[in-house]
Amino acid sequence: MGSALPDTPSHAAGKRRKSPRNKTALVIGSIIGVLVLVGAVLGGLFYTGIIGGSQNDYSGGGHGEVIFTIGEGEIGDQIANNLVEAGVTKSFDSFYQLLLETKPEPVFTPGVYKLKLEMSSQAALDALLDPANRVELTVTIPEGTTEKNVLKMLAEGLSIPLADFQAAVANPAEYGVPAEATTLEGFLFPATYTFSPGVTATEVIQRLVDESLAALDAAGVPADQRWETIIMASVIQRESGPDPEDMYKISRVFHNRLEQGMTMGSDVTTCYGAGLIGKDCLLITQAALDDTSNLYNTRILPGLPIGPISNPGAVAIDAAFNPTEGPWLFFVTVNLTTGETVFTETAADHEAAVEQYYAWLEAHPEAVG
Q1: Per-residue pLDDT at 36 exceeds 90
Q2: Is the dihedral of CA 79, 84, 85, 87 positive or negative?
Q3: CA–CA separation, 190 vs 208, rounded Å?
Q4: Taking a C-beta distance cutoff of 8 angstroms, is the pair 190, 144 a contact?
Q5: Which pTM does this prediction carry?
């Protein structure tokens, strides 16, 4: 018999040959190992901020100042892009991913905002959702203001040249007012308005006109009666005091007088045509009251004046179209401080109320100015 070499483990391992199958397994194992390593590196990079993290986003509240606008209808991806372009945030992904993760979903209000350069996405989002960061221009137009003064108030309040507003109102037909209107007197609705920086004079005027037309619609005024209604409302607004109920009574007086073939008999319309507004109307002369060349002189000329004399508010508009019921044919304000107004049916009672007014004037000469 022949002898055999001892089959030690080391000897047996030294003599064993690798099969092709074993080589394939080693290759696959190596590839998987590399992929795991790459995944670990990428994951580490992601969480340390090189991909989609802090190095793709600024930190902190930023510096300097940026005026940023959110336009009507703009959504998250547009805002995210615009923030990057404005130098506010560092990347689209950092801000947009934050939007997707934020619950409830952020709701943006169109407008102009005061932000900063190089803000973190979170800081930028917080700032856009804070109303205190909205940049707004506010202007208040009192009821009964004339077109001329409305334009001055808008120019001063919005820092837009008066000439821009004068040009903007040059063609009333562009704003959808009745064809009879040769100016926008009566259709510049009095209210407190807020505008974003950059608004144009034309945009401002259109908004005021739109509000006036909306008030006419709310009062139930048909389109073909807007002109007469706004004229009546403009007179009521100038004739009335602080009590809204008086507007409906004054409207009834004018309606009653016109229906009975009388003149409206309004001093304020005559004053408007004579260029006397406000307290200046108290100084009107008898010659001016008798002036038939003044087409706003409703003391003498029949019917409504040829156009509005002020810009009325919603109550005056509603009163013009929906007067209260009553038999009155006259009214006079007997106390200019409180606005107390006396309504009467007869000329004799009216004269007595007028004497009451003159007595008050004598006791309060400062009222004339």
Answers
A1: no
A2: positive
A3: 8
A4: yes
A5: 0.74
